Amino acid sequence: MRVTAVLPFMAEKREWPMSDEHIHLQAAEWAMRQNMEALGEHDFHALEQWLQADPRHADALAEAEMVWALAAELPVAAPRTTTAQRREAPRRAAWRPRRRAHWGAVAASLLAMTLGFFASEELPPMLAEHRTASGEIRTIQLDDGSTIHLGSHTALDVAYDRDTRRVRLLRGEALFEPAPINTGEPRPFVVENADGRSEALGTRFLVRDEGSAGTWVGILEHRVAVSLGEQREELEQGQAARYSRTSGIQRLDDDPRMAADWSRGVLEFRQEPLAHALERIAVFRPGLLKLLEGEQADTPVSGLLHLDNLENGLDRLATQHGLKVMRLPGLTLLMQQDSPRPGHERE
């Protein structure tokens, strides 16, 4: 298989190395040690070497420290802006008194969550044949002439064999344009995710992994046969469905063209609840995106955001609804214009 050019609207594609997940795991371990014990000189030296080894290490450590601060409901520190400040902060933090006993439970929970997440969710995508980072979109051309557009933070494996052209979607979403079946290519084209499969019947279609909610399938052209165990549904152009082990295959009123907007370099919203719009935006940018004003979660929003200028689009969307955007390391908050900083009460 060969990889073709990145879509035009991603002119400044960000390259993320294969070890990115490992860096965040190491950062979580350093953050836990700083908050659970007083580091010695040998530890200081090891941490200093780790920070100097890669410029991403300092940013990953800042994000991990933010998780600890939020977990313990501590005031959030101002973002560190220089490498020197980032390197000095762990040394100062090391001489703080040991945390109270409840930190033990926090540490155990965070470590278990981190290890469990990487083992169950991240390891297969890390080893995937094709994958994208947050905000990255890529097109791959397969040897049989099929085309796959990978969405943000997506991972999949191509597992063609003698009988079937099989693609396994491990994470994220992808738009599939399979080469048609003919005398030279008799094998069916199938996309597998979770316990189900989507078989192309001469078509363009989108498949999205929604985690515990199931798998979403939308048809842009022709038909797709969706199967889950003994259940089978054929979807026509313009139709969509979601399948899961708990609910089976359920037809939806969703518009597949709207769901595939990212393949055109945009995110389009038409009277979508604000909370849903932010969930969609979060898929295409790194870090967490959180709405603090719960009463505005159902506020309908409309707009067109360009993926190559997503942060400005987020700022405009927030301003239209009387919100301000606060960006912290690994975390972006939307709050009322007059809201105080997290961890800082009004006087």
Automatic annotation (TrEMBL):
Membrane-traversing stretches: none
Q: Name one GO molecular function term.
A: sigma factor antagonist activity
Residue stretches making up the FecR N-terminal domain: 26-66
Q: Where is each FecR protein domain found? A: 129-220
Q: Which InterPro entries match?
A: FecR (IPR006860), FecR_N (IPR032623), Ferrdict_sens_TM (IPR012373)
What PANTHER family has UniProt attached to this entry? PERIPLASMIC SIGNAL SENSOR AND SIGMA FACTOR ACTIVATOR FECR-RELATED, PROTEIN FECR
Q: What is this protein called?
A: FecR family protein
Species whose genome carries this gene = Stutzerimonas kirkiae
